[in-house]
Amino acid sequence: MADETRVGVDVGGTFTDVALLTAEDRLVTAKVPSTGDQSVGVVEGIEKACAEAGIDPDDVDGFTHAMTVSVNALLESTGAKTALVTTEGFRDVLEIGRQDRPDLYDLTAERPAPLVPRRRRFEVTERATEDGIETPVDESEVRELAAEIRDCGAESVAVSLLHAYQHPENERAVAAVLREELDVPVSASHEVLAEFREFERTSTTAVDAYVTPVIDAYLGRLEERAAELGVPTPRIMQANGGLAPASTVREHAVTTTMSGPAAGVVGAAETAAAGDLAGLVTFDMGGTSSDVSLVRGGEAERTTDAEINGHPVRTPMVDVNTVGAGGGSVAWVDAGDALRVGPRSSGADPGPACYGRGGTEPTVTDANVVLGYIGGSSALGGELSLDAGAAHDALAGLADEVGLDDALAAARGVYRVANANMARAIRSVTVERGHDPRRFGLVAFGGAGPMHAAALADGLDVGTVVVPRACGVLSAYGLLAADEKHDSVRTLRSPLVGVDVATVESAYDGLRADVLADVETPADATVSRAADLRYDGQSFELTVPVGGTFDPETVAERFHEAHEGAYGYRLSDPVELVNLRSTAVVERGALDVTYGGAGEARKATREAFFDDGFRETPVYAREGLDAGDDVSGPAVLEQNESTVVVPPGWRGTVGADGTLTLTRGGEER
After folding, report:
1. Axis-axis angle for helices 388-402, 407-429 (nearest 10)
2. How far apart are CA 191 and CA 160, in angstroms?
3. Which residues contact 430 (CB under 8 A, 6 or more apart)?
């Protein structure tokens, strides 16, 4: 990293976060409101960070980026008008899905509408079995289909044929003709997800086709603005926690669906060492939502089993659980007169009432103002002066509606309900997966996370909270630390006993070629291998690492251990090999960030509410604290992008890199 200036920019629902590391290893952070066209806010954020660092934008050597463009398209149904081509007789796979209910006991539950309506789903005469091609494709029929697709006004096409994961020849032929005949992107399932399970493969391919034109248009605008600014073409954070060139992402847009949350987990893993803990729970509370995940062994937990707005996406991604509880989440009263928080957010404009931009609805941020955690000396993003009176008015109105005494009672309720929502999310990635949260540390970041982290930790009996120096923009910081990473998968189903090792090794050779083809500098890449396995008769798999040579006995034992770790038992049943996986990684090296306190640490005192009432609480400028300094609760530590609340009974210690570690049991001042 030496002698290079790099900038990372993450776009969230409310703010766009920037982390800039200068050639002298000085870290500069910035936060600006997100914009409708996200590329506008990205450029504004880079300009703000560069101005603060005293450099010109054209001094930037590297630009990495995470955004919410693809996930917003799925959540808001604003993706491309997509067509689907599939095998004759399988037109409705996307709509039939799996025969399960979104909510077993909800009689009014409805499935989300398929991304591709039936009128834009087309069939082609062909057939492949697991043994090979039975009926080849007639190219003239495909050309006729192309004309129909053109006439329906499709902006992209997904192609998912039966058993194309095993024998892609027919699908390859269909995609080639459509790409020749149509001037729209074509996503083929064997290129997107060469994995069995017809519905999930088709859904993932449809998602790729649905978001590709949106991502392509966005990155085109961003690249133009970056060039005008003088910064390099961005490298993009993927959902798997690794970077990829913008050109690669434009061809595989589905990989960006959880781009921002993945960057935050990478940043948490970079800045917080687990030490003698079992691992880390990452807690990212932004303006719109809160994301939680696990880091074990220094690596973020990953999954291939995810849904976004009801649509299965099976590409590898950092395993993140999201709840609609952020600083901008609106508090409301339901039909049973119960206080609720989220998932609706006030967004960036008008934002919470305390922003003074015309918002009148009570939010979590307004509750924090009333409780005294955010005060008159705070300035979110370094720009927004807070209107405490508007926050009190909004909470007073909520108190009247729910039948509470005053704005303070409403604020306490909002704070507790929001924390309960987030605690449930943390339990879902710990207790519900066999992990004891008491053995983990909690890494808090996001604009609002450090305000709630210690209270959450108390409720979960977690004794350590880590607040990185760049906590308010940690996703952007994670972009500076992320490695380049590419994944590929292929289904190869076989009993593990007696499996043809030569066939397995040949498949791994193909996967290796696939992932290295996406790497910018293949000579610098390290390729790892893994396999998905299950007991005979199971309908789910576990992924285990595979060494340099595929040894069935070693792989079987790793699977038994993984199954026992996940579910508490192992079986003597036969083990089935299901999928082979390869991942190529180009490491960028650890960040070396210098830190030293600057200016006066103690700012003032103000009344802040804790369990027993309001207390006169010291307020510190976090950047004024030096390495080795201690702060005992109650205390509030302010910085431009975030605020840390240290409750009574907690103590904070500043590390050599500026990271703040909170431990329970600190003496009160």
Report:
1. 80
2. 10
3. 281, 294, 436, 437, 440
Instruction: Tokens for 587, please give them.
Output: 């490491």
- C-alpha–C-alpha distance, residues 161 and 191, integer Å: 12
| Token pair 């005469």: residue | 125
Tokens of 400: 């009247």
Closest CA to 208 of 227, 187, 237: 187
Q: Largest alpha-carbon pair distance within the chain?
A: 82
How far apart are alpha carbons 154 and 186 in whole angstroms?
A: 11
Q: Tell whether omega for the bond before 114 is within 30 degrees of 0, i.e. cis.
A: no
* Residue 97 pLDDT class (50, 70, 90 cuts): confident
Which residue carries 């039939």 as its tokens? 96
CA torsion angle for 5, 10, 15, 17 (degrees, to 10)?
A: -20
Give per-residue pLDDT as tens, 98-133: 877 767 787 777 778 899 999 999 999 999 987 899
Classify 290 in phi/psi space as left (phi over 0), alpha (psi -120 to 50) or beta.
beta
pLDDT tens digits along 378-421: 555 445 568 899 999 999 999 999 999 999 999 999 999 999 99
Write the secondary structure of 438-471 as one string of H (helix), E (strand) and C (coil).
HHEEEEEECCCHHHHHHHHHHHHCCCEEEECCCH
Contact between residue 422 and residue 325 where contact means Cβ atoms under 8 Å apart: yes
Strands 82-87 and 156-160: parallel
* CA separation, residue 120 to residues 5, 182, 186, 489 (Å): 48, 15, 14, 29
